[in-house]
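sry for the spam today, last one i promise. struct tokens for design, 67 residues
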């Protein structure tokens, strides 16, 4: 498990990569899908179209995204 950060959400172990993006680097365009625990967005990152997943109940402004 080296120096990676461990996140626990709903009993699942999730590991953040060493490259973490700031919210200001991502432009959210539209919601693709919403589930029980997360929203999936079409977004832009450095001019590229990407998909961003956010957990429900966590304000988008406070999130950081892994590459």
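last one done:
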């Amino acid at each position: 498990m080296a120096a990676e950060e461990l996140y626990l959400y709903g009993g699942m172990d999730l590991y953040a990569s060493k490259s973490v993006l700031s919210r200001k680097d991502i432009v959210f365009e539209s919601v693709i899908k919403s589930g029980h625990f997360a929203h999936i967005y079409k977004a832009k990152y450095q001019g590229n179209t990407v998909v961003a997943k956010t957990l429900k109940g966590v304000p988008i402004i406070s999130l950081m995204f892994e590459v």
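The radius of gyration is 13 Å. ok im logging off now
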